[in-house]
Records
---
Amino acid sequence: MMEYKGYIGKVEFDDEANLFHGEVINLRDVITFAGETVQELRQAFEESIEDYLAFCAERGEEPERPFSGTFTVRISPELHRAIAVRAKLSNKSLNSWLGEVLAGTVTGEHATHRS
């Protein structure tokens, strides 16, 4: 994984082509990059981000920013109700409780959020 200006690149190695290649993974827009060495790969990654930002500026468009902190999840009404009840029982808002649960899941501490 690589990061530059908040954009995250996922990198793989193509053994047949003897080439590193990557893609920015925290955008809907497609940004790719490649290099034969780690230094070339990093330079290509940063240049690809700079090119993307320049392209957006030329078109007068705001570049897509990596994740705003807001997302929509579609779940069953029963699960929604159960989550809301758990949040209330913890004296937390739904957003706060769910954020803690998700953070615990990502860090491997999800068992501590079962109340």
Note: Residues 38-59 form the longest helix (22 residues).
---
Amino acid sequence: MSDNQPPMGPDPKLMMELVTEKMPFGKYAGRLLCDLPVHYLEWFQREGFPKGRLGMQLATLYEIKINGLGEILNKLRRLKGN
């Protein structure tokens, strides 16, 4: 691997945001992103994720949840004391 290739794996900052940031709008406004129900994330996947950072966060969360990787979120929550 050369020095100019990006590191493999998820962005650690983005992953921590999933357990610390809240949904800014909609039916689940104020809820931690990691606590959003799968059906809500599926709706965004069908209709289109928002632009920008929030869209990236929700798309990442969708992939984690539909692939049964929710334990990753639980470990991050424990690290942050949530």
Note: The chain has one domain: 12-80.
